[in-house]
């Protein structure tokens, strides 16, 4: 399986401004009291704040936070424990050092061509070969009709304009909050093969994002992936958090490693 984790941030299309952060702002001050700063307890201890919105809502994190109860592909019990602390200062170590281990098809991630093509796998077409220019830029958010998978008929009805390169598909998966349920659900909404083929043949889309663990419907799992990834021109971004989203620009930061 050739997938990896990404950090995906979305910037609202309107009122975009460059954001400059000084080195001292890497951790918000515990003493400013500004929105987004660390909270301070009565005892004066700093409390970290994990934000999903930055710069007054202009930057939104649309990845899912890793938890033991988040869904993992094929699992009925969720992800389970994935983070250990073998070296702990409480136990006498000089520093805290963690071990991070999980299936790669978990949380918000991308698929590489080697995910479903053995010859691409052997040739090294991993996530670190994906085009960062495709992974970053203006994206169209579309709402898919809620009663069906993404077929050719559905794709036609969405009227995606020519020239659009990145489309994020919000489906019934978001309404059902499937990414908040730990048991993997095979009834999720995804692309059928004919829908994937219609997108390839009739649009200029190079990035396809969706709101569950696979862009392809469970009943058309491999055929849809083959259509999308055969020519190495389309990047798949899966398990996005698209509730309460608006049209935006996206920035994807890939977690790169050897043989990823």
TrEMBL record:
Statement: the UniProt record of this protein carries the keyword Cell membrane: no
Keywords in alphabetical order: Extracellular matrix, Secreted, Signal
InterPro entries linked: KFase/CYL, KFase_sf
Any single GO BP term: L-tryptophan catabolic process to kynurenine
Alphabetical list of Pfam families matching this protein: Cyclase
Claim: Signal is one of the keywords in the record: yes
Signal peptide (from-to): 1-22
Compartments, as annotated in UniProt: Secreted, Extracellular space, Extracellular matrix
SUPFAM superfamilies: Putative cyclase
Any one Gene Ontology molecular-function term assigned to this protein's record: arylformamidase activity
Family: Belongs to the Cyclase 1 superfamily.
Family matches, as PANTHER family: CYCLASE-LIKE PROTEIN 2
Name by which UniProt lists this protein: Uncharacterized protein
Species, as recorded: Aristolochia fimbriata
């Amino acid at each position: 399986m050739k997938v990896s984790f990404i950090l995906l941030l979305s910037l609202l299309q309107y009122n975009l401004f460059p954001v400059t952060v000084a080195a001292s702002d890497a951790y918000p001050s515990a003493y400013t009291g500004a929105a987004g700063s660390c909270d301070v307890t009565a005892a004066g201890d700093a409390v970290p704040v994990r934000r999903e919105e930055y710069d007054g809502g202009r930057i939104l994190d649309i990845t899912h936070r890793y938890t033991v109860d988040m869904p993992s592909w094929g699992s009925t019990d969720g992800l389970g424990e994935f983070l250990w602390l073998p070296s702990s200062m409480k136990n006498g170590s000089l520093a805290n050092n963690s071990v991070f281990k999980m299936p790669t098809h978990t949380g918000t991630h991308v698929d590489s061509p080697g995910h479903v093509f053995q010859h691409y796998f052997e040739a090294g077409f991993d996530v670190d070969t994906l085009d960062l220019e495709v992974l970053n830029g203006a994206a169209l958010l579309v709402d898919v009709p809620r009663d069906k998978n993404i077929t050719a008929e559905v794709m036609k009805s969405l009227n995606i304009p020519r020239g659009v390169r990145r489309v994020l598909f919000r489906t019934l998966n978001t309404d059902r909050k499937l990414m908040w349920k730990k048991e993997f659900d095979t009834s999720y909404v995804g692309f059928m093969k004919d829908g994937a083929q219609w997108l390839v043949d009739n649009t200029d889309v190079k990035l396809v994002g969706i709101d569950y663990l696979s862009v392809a419907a469970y009943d058309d799992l491999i055929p849809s992936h083959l259509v999308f990834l055969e020519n190495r021109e389309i990047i798949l971004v899966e398990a996005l958090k698209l509730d309460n989203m608006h049209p935006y620009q996206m920035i994807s930061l890939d977690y790169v490693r050897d043989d990823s």
